């Protein structure tokens, strides 16, 4: 946030942000925060404070993660960490809210002690708190790690497993929760990060095909080279998806990596999404059988054969 443009005020157990410039306030995002599907956010009320916009946050009976961590045993803390990742994924699936507007400092991630339900602080303002999704993910990992490192059981292998999973190249915040990561050991098969289920570690080479779910007629794009470009241009793309004007000429590409595959957004005009989360351009995101890739508003399912 721009220095001096947003200031924080404590209001007993609650707190508020004061906006120096009222034009920074985004009414559409504010309304979305109050939808039933946004129960992962702290309740926020817009008020006036000396003629300025005040965003007042009601913490109710919740405690900051930094404090709640001290009250949880190992199993409970692993559950809290998993719940945080689950709720981050729900933010990405909302479609109207942005991860880049979440304050994810350890003292601003709120936990209901009775249920371990997570609630985030969302700022409906024009200014982003994070430059991009990559920075958001790095910040989140850092805050969670700092919180665990203050615990007496910080050396428990299950915490190491958790941070190993979310620190893997290609892991992103749309991946599903890993609260069961404590069951992973050196002899177990790896976990599918999107569905928290075990998958075979002995996969041979597979063919990757994208099957259209929204085109007027059936379209199957089978990856036939190391880097397979998909777009609407018959000259620039290996796999042509010309049925939608919203798909870019070179929209994204599927790259083969060992026995697996990954998707990369090629700085498309209307974005590429993996299981509901928008991808950061130029970054590889591993895909697996059943995943949904959205190009602009067109969905394709990954089929491994």
If you had to describe this structure to a student in words, what would you say it looks like?
The chain has 305 residues and is of the alpha+beta class. The protein has two domains: 1-188, Transferase(Phosphotransferase), domain 1 (Orthogonal Bundle); 208-304, Sandwich (Tumour Suppressor Smad4). 19% of the residues lie in helices and 29% in strands. The protein is built from five helices and 21 strands. Strands 12-11-21-20-17-18 form a six-stranded antiparallel sheet. Strand 15 and strand 16 (260-265) form a beta hairpin.
Keywords:
305 residues, alpha+beta, Transferase(Phosphotransferase), domain 1, Tumour Suppressor Smad4, 2 domains, 6-stranded antiparallel β-sheet, 5-stranded mixed β-sheet, 5 helices, 21 strands, 29% strand
Strand and helix order: EEHEEEHHEEEHHEEEEEEEEEEEEE
Q: Bin the strand percentage.
A: 25-35%
How many domains comprise the coordinates? 2
| SS elements, strand count | 21
How many DSSP helices?
5
Instruction: Tell me, rounded to a whole number, the average pLDDT.
Output: 82
Provide the CATH topology of the largest domain. Transferase(Phosphotransferase), domain 1
Give helix % range: 10-25%
CATH architecture term of the largest domain? Orthogonal Bundle
Radius of gyration: 21 Å
Provide the low-confidence segments as ranges: 174-203
Pfam families: DUF6382, FHA
InterPro entries: Cell_Proc_Reg/RNA_Proc, DUF6382, FHA_dom, SMAD_FHA_dom_sf
Domain FHA: 228-279
Protein name: FHA domain-containing protein
């Amino acid at each position: 946030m721009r220095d001096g443009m947003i200031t924080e005020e404590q209001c007993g157990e609650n707190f508020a942000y004061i906006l120096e410039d009222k034009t920074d306030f985004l009414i559409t995002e504010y309304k979305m925060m109050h939808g039933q599907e946004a129960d992962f956010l702290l309740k926020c009320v817009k008020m006036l404070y000396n003629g300025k916009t005040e965003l007042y946050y009601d913490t109710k009976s919740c405690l900051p993660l930094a404090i709640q961590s001290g009250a949880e045993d190992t199993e409970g803390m692993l559950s809290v960490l998993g719940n945080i990742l689950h709720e981050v994924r729900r933010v990405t699936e909302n479609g109207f809210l942005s991860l880049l507007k979440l304050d994810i400092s350890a003292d601003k991630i709120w936990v209901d002690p009775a249920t371990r339900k997570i609630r985030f602080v969302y700022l409906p303002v024009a200014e982003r708190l994070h430059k991009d999704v990559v920075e958001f993910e790095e910040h989140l990992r850092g805050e969670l790690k700092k919180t665990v490192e203050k615990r007496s059981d910080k050396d428990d292998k299950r915490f190491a497993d958790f941070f190993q999973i979310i620190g893997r190249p290609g892991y992103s915040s749309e991946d599903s929760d890993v609260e069961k990561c404590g069951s992973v050991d050196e002899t177990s098969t790896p976990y599918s990060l999107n569905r928290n289920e075990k998958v075979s570690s002995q996969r041979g080479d597979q063919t990757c095909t994208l099957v259209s779910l929204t085109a007027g007629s059936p379209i199957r794009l089978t990856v036939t080279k190391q880097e397979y470009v998909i777009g609407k241009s018959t000259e620039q793309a290996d796999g042509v998806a010309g049925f939608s004007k919203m798909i870019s000429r070179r929209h994204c590409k599927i790259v083969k990596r060992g026995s697996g595959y990954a998707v990369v957004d090629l700085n498309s005009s209307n974005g590429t999404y993996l299981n509901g989360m928008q991808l950061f351009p130029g970054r590889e995101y591993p895909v697996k059988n059943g995943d949904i890739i959205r190009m602009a508003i067109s969905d394709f399912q990954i089929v491994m054969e």
